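Hi R.,

As promised on Friday, here is the backbone we talked about, encoded as structure tokens. Could you run it through your design pipeline when you get a chance and send me back a sequence?
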């Protein structure tokens, strides 16, 4: 197995081992798990992907999330990102819920910070790709953390932030998150620094879903969140993944941000399937929880 660096200081392509080998072998899983802990983003090319293989691979890393209420794939391990209308086979119109969701995915975020437990990792497979556009862009929140002034790191290591799915959706359309989504996913609070227990490396933990910081005024907090994300995602710090047929990309939701990039979605279909692995205490969740959670 070869691990070839991809992005500016993070990310790697895995060659000589694919999803099937990870699913079948403890040794290959251990090697890929080590690469995941080290590089945060892993790319596998030319995979003969199927839903079964994606689940078998993903389950190696931990328990799978069930796709959230009111999403395509609800109640299954698959989050479906698509502009193809399942009933008609046609492209959805621009004001369709799935088109708006694609726009929300184009905000810098990491998956499931609004869930409890949050996510360790996501595995995204390309099923139908547009001829151009529709890339996925990544940045390292480990490197973002390391670039912060020491005094700010000391403060953020003991700060707690609130995350809400409805907050990021509200940036696209006020009612994009439905009542059922709001009631099944109430806001959650996490430490703003996630230390990886495998290597003790800290990451800045926040996302488009983050709307408040404990002990800080609302506007001040929103400005700080925006500034931290802007600094973390300057173009020189990002890796733009241009999808090819057969690609599978896995990312560490503890230690990275990502965003979808636009494509002419009125002209071309794009269909992606994501499995998401929940974080456990072995992945560092216990230290993320506030001792007391004030609203
Ligand atoms: C995701 C996501 C972006 C994309 O699957 O979690 O944000 O490019 N995807 O599809
Ligand atoms: Mn995402």
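Update: got your reply. Pasting your designed sequence below so it's all in one thread:
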């Amino acid at each position: 197995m070869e691990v070839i660096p991809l992005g500016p200081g993070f990310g790697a392509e895995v060659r000589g081992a694919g999803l099937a080998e990870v699913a079948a072998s403890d040794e290959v899983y251990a090697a890929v798990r080590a690469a995941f802990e080290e590089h945060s983003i892993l790319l596998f090319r030319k995979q003969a992907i199927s839903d079964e293989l994606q689940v078998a691979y993903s389950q190696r890393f931990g328990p799978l999330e069930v796709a959230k209420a009111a999403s395509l794939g609800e109640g299954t391990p698959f989050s479906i990102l698509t502009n193809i209308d399942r009933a008609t086979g046609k492209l959805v119109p621009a004001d369709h819920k799935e088109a708006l969701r694609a726009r929300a995915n184009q905000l810098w975020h990491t998956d499931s910070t609004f869930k409890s437990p949050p996510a360790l990792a996501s595995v995204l497979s390309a099923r139908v790709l547009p001829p151009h556009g529709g890339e996925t862009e990544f940045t390292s929140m480990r490197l973002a953390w390391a670039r912060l002034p020491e005094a700010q790191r000391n403060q953020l290591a003991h700060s707690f932030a609130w995350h809400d799915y409805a907050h990021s959706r509200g940036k696209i359309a006020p009612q994009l998150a439905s009542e059922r989504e709001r009631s099944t996913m109430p806001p959650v609070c996490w430490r703003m620094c996630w230390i990886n227990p495998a290597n003790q490396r800290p990451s800045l933990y926040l996302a488009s879903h983050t709307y408040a910081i404990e002990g800080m005024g609302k506007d001040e907090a929103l400005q700080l969140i925006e500034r931290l994300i802007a600094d973390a995602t300057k173009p020189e710090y990002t890796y733009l993944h241009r999808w090819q047929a057969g690609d599978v990309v896995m990312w560490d939701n503890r230690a990275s941000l990502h965003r979808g990039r636009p494509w002419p979605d009125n002209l071309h279909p794009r269909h992606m399937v994501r499995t998401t692995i929940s974080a456990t205490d072995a992945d560092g969740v216990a230290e993320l929880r506030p001792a007391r959670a004030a609203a």
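One thing I noticed while checking it: The pocket of N-oxalylglycine (ligand 1) is lined by residues 81, 105, 111, 122, 124, 136, 258, 260, 272, 274 (CB under 6 Å).

Thanks again,
M.
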